[in-house]
Design a protein that fits this description.
single chain, globular, lipid-linked peptidoglycan transporter activity, transmembrane, cell membrane, membrane, transferase
Length: about 375
């Protein structure tokens, strides 16, 4: 494993391809949040810019956080990791002190803002895994003392998030944990034991709650219950189908006019498909592909194992969430509440993702530059 030598750190240039892709996605997100939410906002709040104002403010805060983290040496995060874990754990349970939304308790209401601790938990787990696996070194190849403790650790956070009725983010935490463990040097044969157990656990939790079970069954045939559990997915199909190749035009969506429930949230990609068509959808998918490509490139060329694992985890979270969201909207997997990173409405999600991407950009400033990618 690569070891980092303590010395004066000379910052290089950021990965400008990644930098511009992040801003492209952010700009598209702000515009599409306004387009998707304007009718809903006018109907419910008598202000068609209600969600745009909030998302715009979050975008500004997110940009400031990203620019700060770009200049903040990521190695200093080592000392902040344990305090972050200590803070995150109680936050995950503070949510139960407040009234839930749509049957889920995921948010801590603050003045003009709602904090979603599960968004912090994802990156807190990644930060801890990167720190600990780097210290463990070759010990990661031992199942009982290497991999198993990390599965238990991540499982605790995933379980805490699951109590908030958020199976999707719990799944993201466990999937990214497996990715980081693999990159960290865990033996492939050990995954033959872990993956079936985690899969069985996922199936159990799906069928242990009636609403999750109904979502799975309605995913197979949404038209069986078109007025209830299958409604949102059917509206997504109608939006994507209406958009065709070139789309109806920006702002011209019909599904956002109270047909699609909260169109600016998890199903914003279907509104993008309706207004910008297949071309717009493919462009956004391409941007995410480029983001993941640059993230992998940064991870491969990081100067130390810690940087490699941190970059892998951050990239993994964005990639897995984008993949799940697009799969849900297109009917490729059961409906679940995973926002599209940098695009879906959500202040805490946007700010935390931008902060994490700032860390990734900082890692890019310290990569080995012997060869260009």
């Amino acid at each position: 494993m690569k070891k980092f030598k303590k010395a004066a750190i000379k910052m290089g240039q950021i990965d400008y391809i990644l930098f511009y892709v992040i801003f492209f996605l952010l700009a598209i997100g702000v515009v599409m949040v306004y387009s998707a939410s304007s009718f809903y906002a006018m109907y419910n709040f008598n202000d068609n810019m209600y969600f745009l104002k909030k998302q715009g403010f979050s975008a500004i805060v997110g940009i400031i956080a990203m620019l700060f983290m770009m200049s903040f040496d990521y190695h200093k995060l080592r000392k902040l990791t344990v305090p972050l874990i200590i803070i995150t754990i109680p936050l995950l349970y503070v949510v139960f002190l407040f009234e839930g939304t749509n049957g889920a308790q995921r948010w801590i209401p603050l003045p003009g803002f709602s904090l979603q601790p599960s968004e912090i938990a994802k990156y807190a787990v990644v930060a801890f895994l990167a720190l600990s696996i780097d210290k463990k070194g070759e010990g990661i190849k031992n199942f009982k003392t290497g991999i198993l403790p990390y599965i238990i650790f991540s499982g605790f956070f995933a379980g805490s998030v699951l109590l908030e009725k958020n199976l999707s983010i719990a799944s993201v935490i466990m999937i990214v944990t497996l990715i980081v463990l693999f990159v960290g040097g865990a033996r492939p044969r050990d995954f033959a034991t872990i993956i079936p157990v985690l899969f069985a656990g996922g199936v159990f939790f799906i069928f242990s709650e009636s609403y999750r079970r109904e979502r799975l069954l309605n995913f197979l045939d949404p038209w069986k219950d078109p007025a209830n559990n299958g409604y949102q997915l059917i509206q997504s199909f109608l939006a994507l189908g209406a958009g065709g190749v070139t789309g109806l035009g920006l702002g011209q969506s019909r599904q956002k006019t109270l047909y699609m429930p909260e169109p600016h949230n998890d199903f914003i990609f279907s509104i993008i498909g309706e207004e910008l068509g297949l071309i717009g959808c493919l462009f956004i998918i391409l941007l995410f592909v480029v983001l993941v490509w640059r993230g992998i490139s940064i991870a491969m060329r990081a100067k130390d194992t810690y940087g490699t694992l941190l970059a892998t985890g951050i990239t993994g979270i964005i990639a897995v969430q984008a993949l799940i969201n697009i799969a849900v909207v297109t009917g490729s997997m059961p409906v679940t509440g995973v926002p599209l990173p940098l695009i879906s409405y959500g202040g805490s999600s946007l700010i935390i993702n931008m902060t994490a991407l700032g860390i990734l950009l900082n890692i890019s400033r310290q990569i080995e530059r012997k060869s260009s990618t």
